[in-house]
Structure formats: structure tokens, C-alpha cells
Design a protein that fits this description.
By secondary structure, this protein is an alpha+beta fold. It folds into two domains: 295 residues, phage-related protein like fold, CATH 3.90.1690; 108 residues, no CATH class. Helices cover 23% and strands 34% of the residues. The protein has nine helices and 23 strands. The strands form five sheets. Strands 5, 6, 7, 8, 9, 10, 19 and 23 form an eight-stranded mixed sheet that branches. It is globular.
Length: 431
């Protein structure tokens, strides 16, 4: 029988175990709604951590038949799929002197931060996981839904203006999107910017709710609430581990190009360019006003957030007149902004000597996911006869100056048993 984290807490006998489970629930709205099925056991030295299942691709139909005639045979289609369960978590070390001075506050702080990091990594894997990239993870929804009937990618969906007509169109889009699932949705997952749009749409339609989460309180004993679109949980997938970039990215639908044009009269000095990729910024050193295209390419690809081969620089009017900077390669589809960081040193009487105009796509697109949690839909996988979440506190009474603490979830994985238990709405323009 599948269990949620809230149900797993009922089986915990240690107060610290219960606290750790509550911290997982507070840190992740996804883990709050997801259920886990105990499907594997620990025998065979880990050899049984592979779970095999059938994923239903298309359902079969039914029809009437005439008397004295046979039905036309048809079958539902399915594929055989497997997933390996893997432990997820981390460890930290703390000097016993610090623990004694802080009276356990440092241990508590490190435990809380590790739990947040673990839930963040799980959410990232849930959306973006690819075993071809990280064999220790599992395939996420982005990979599983690509090319399926529940990948809705019918062109640009513009939610930048939710006036009366824009709101009605957005509401129709959401209704049509959710109907591709094979049952009532459990949750909608998006980044914080798309969640803000969905919240606005829900308010206009009078279906927005904030419900207290059972037996879960925050600072000061205040109840923790969950956002809902009607009966459907609205879940912000959050940001990637060690990053300010959202797990569900904001992107351009194609390569982004900018033109840089010096105003008439520019004949000396320097300027600097900044690049912002998915919210992360970096700035070049001072660039000569008439820098060559090759050197400008090198300067931009020398930034920490610009991979090698991701920039192409061209000029049609000669160096110092205009440049066209195109971001492609590893940044094709990323939300890239090129801006002038310092143009004050250019030798010209004009106040704004350098003009940047984006000639490619304006970006601001994202994807929105919907899931139906259940044994026959999307389900978490865990081990039988083992706690879903475990913790090991630093043992201060043992010899040794530096102690180690750990938090671990699982081994866990996720199985999509029916393609129509999850869906993705592509290319939603939110800014």
C-alpha cells in the first residue's frame, strides 16, 4: 500500500525521526502530495533495487457489435520499463567544540539545510532527471513526456497580459491541458513565475484556495498552507541546487541575437558587456570600442555563465560600428540577456553611445506540468521494511574531534505507470 510522508510519520517511533519527516514535508510541497510504494527489498546485496513495470501508452477502445458478428479485436499498448532505486541525501561534519558552544544549534542548522538540499535535488530529478547524464538518479518528467500524446506543444501561449480576454483564453488553455490526463490531477508543477500567473488565473475564476496542511506548523505555531487551483495542488518546483535558476527553466524558443550599435561620433574609449543566463549574471572586463569580432567572442565565452562555443559574433559595418551577437549551442533555448554594463568611458558627446537591440526571440517562455498520483499513475518507489527517511546525528560521546551527521531518503525513484498520468504544457510565455 502506498504511503505519503505524513503517513510515514505515523510509523516513526523516535521524536527526531518525526522532526526530520516534518522538515521534509515543510521543505517540499511535491513530497507532501507524492505517495511511495514499497516495491523492492534489501536482499541480494542491492541486486533487487531494480523495479520493473509496464507503462500504459494508449488505452484500448470499446464498440458496439451487430448480432451474429464478432468484435474487432484491439489491445491497449504498453512498454516494459525499469528504474533503479538510489539513496538520496548527504552528510555534514562538525567539530565537537562548536556543537558544545552552540548547544546543538549548529547540528540543527546543518540538518535543516541538508534536508532542504535533499528535497531540492529530488524536485530537480523529478523534472529534469536523465540517467544518461547521471546514472545514480532516475528519468524525470521532461524526458519521459517528450514525444508523447500528453506533451502539449502547439505554439506560443501568451500569458503576459491577463486582461479579460487574456484571462479567459488562459482559463480555456488550462482546462484543455488538464483534460489530457486520464483522471483528476493531483498537482500542477511550475516555477514561481508561472505559479504567480496560475494563482492570478485561479483568483479571477474564483477557484483559488489556501488550505492548511494537516499536522504541520511553521514558526510561531502558524499553520503551513498549500496553494490550490480548485482541488489541484499548485507546487512551485523551486530553484536548482546551489543556483538561483528555476528547476523548471525560463527559456527562449530559439537562439537569441543582439545587435550592438555605437552612436555616431564614437571614436575611442572602452565599454563592458554583461550577460544574464536564467537569472545568473557575469560581466566582461573593459572592451575596446572597436574590438574585433574574434576578441569580443573570446571575451563573452570567457564569462562563467557562457559555455565555449555558445557565442557567434559578426559585424556588417566594420569594427566599432555594429556587432551582431548570437547565443546558440549550449545556450540555444536559454533565457539570455545581453546588456551594457559600463559605457561611460566611450569618447563621445552622446549620453547613450551604445544601443543594444534584441533581434532574436524575446524569451520568457516556460513549461507547466500536471500529474496524477496513484498506483496506476505516477508513483514514488521505496524499499519494503525500511523507513522512507532516516537520519544519523553526530555522536558527540564517541572519540574523535570531528563528528559526522547524515540524512538519507530512500533508496527512492519514481515510476510513471501510465503516460496519461502526467502532462506538460510547453512554450507558455509568462514575461
Amino acid at each position: 500500500m502506498p504511503v505519503s510522508l505524513a503517513q510515514a510519520k505515523l510509523n516513526a517511533t523516535d521524536d527526531i525521526d518525526m522532526m526530520v519527516i516534518d522538515e521534509f514535508r515543510k521543505s517540499s510541497a511535491l513530497l507532501e502530495v507524492l505517495e511511495f510504494h514499497d516495491v523492492v527489498n534489501a536482499s541480494g546485496a542491492g541486486a533487487t533495487l531494480t523495479y520493473g513495470y509496464h507503462r500504459v501508452l494508449t488505452e484500448r477502445g470499446a464498440a458496439f457489435r451487430a448480432i451474429n458478428s464478432e468484435y474487432t479485436p484491439s489491445e491497449a499498448t504498453k512498454i516494459r520499463a525499469t528504474v533503479d532505486l538510489k539513496p538520496l541525501g548527504g552528510s555534514f561534519q562538525i567539530d565537537r567544540v562548536l556543537a558544545n558552544v552552540a548547544a546543538g544549534a549548529e547540528v540543527s542548522f546543518q540538518m535543516t539545510q541538508l534536508i532542504k538540499a535533499t528535497t531540492t535535488k529530488f524536485a530537480d530529478e523529478f523534472i529534469n532527471g536523465d540517467t544518461g547524464v547521471d546514472a545514480n538518479g532516475f528519468d524525470g518528467l521532461d524526458k519521459a513526456l517528450t514525444g508523447t500524446s500528453t506533451e502539449i506543444n502547439e505554439g506560443v501561449i501568451n500569458w503576459t497580459n491577463l486582461d479579460s480576454s487574456g484571462f479567459q483564453n488562459a482559463l480555456d488553455t488550462i482546462d484543455a491541458f488538464l483534460m489530457v490526463l486520464d483522471g483528476p490531477p493531483t498537482a500542477i508543477l511550475a516555477n514561481q513565475y508561472a505559479i504567480a500567473k496560475l494563482t492570478s488565473i485561479a483568483r479571477r475564476a474564483n477557484v483559488y484556495r489556501e488550505d492548511p496542511i494537516a499536522n504541520l506548523t511553521g514558526p510561531g505555531g502558524r499553520p503551513i498552507v498549500g496553494k490550490r487551483y480548485g482541488n489541484i495542488a499548485l507546487i512551485d518546483a523551486g530553484d536548482k541546487p546551489n543556483s538561483a535558476s528555476p528547476i523548471i527553466p525560463i527559456y527562449d524558443v530559439d537562439s537569441t541575437s543582439y545587435t550592438i550599435t555605437h552612436s555616431a561620433g564614437t571614436d575611442g574609449g572602452t565599454f563592458a558587456l554583461g550577460v544574464e543566463v536564467d537569472g545568473e549574471r557575469d560581466v566582461t572586463a573593459a572592451l575596446a570600442w572597436n574590438i574585433s569580432t574574434a576578441n569580443l567572442d573570446t571575451a563573452l565565452e570567457g564569462l562563467d555563465n557562457v559555455p565555449a562555443g555558445a557565442v557567434t559574433v559578426a559585424t556588417t559595418g566594420g569594427a566599432g560600428v555594429d556587432y551582431t551577437v548570437t547565443f546558440g549551442g549550449a545556450l540555444a533555448g536559454a533565457d539570455v540577456v545581453l546588456y551594457v554594463d559600463n559605457d561611460a568611458l566611450l569618447d563621445t558627446p552622446v549620453l547613450e553611445p551604445t544601443v543594444l537591440a534584441e533581434t532574436g526571440n524575446t524569451g520568457g517562455y516556460t513549461d507547466i506540468y500536471a500529474i496524477r498520483v496513484g498506483e496506476d499513475g505516477l508513483i514514488g518507489l521505496s524499499m519494503a521494511n525500511q523507513p522512507l527517511v532516516q537520519q544519523w546525528l553526530p555522536q558527540m560521546q564517541l572519540p574523535g574531534a570531528v563528528k559526522t551527521g547524515e540524512v538519507e531518503m530512500g533508496p527512492v525513484a519514481v515510476a510513471l505507470k501510465a503516460t496519461k498520468a502526467a502532462a506538460v504544457l510547453r512554450r507558455v510565455k509568462i514575461r
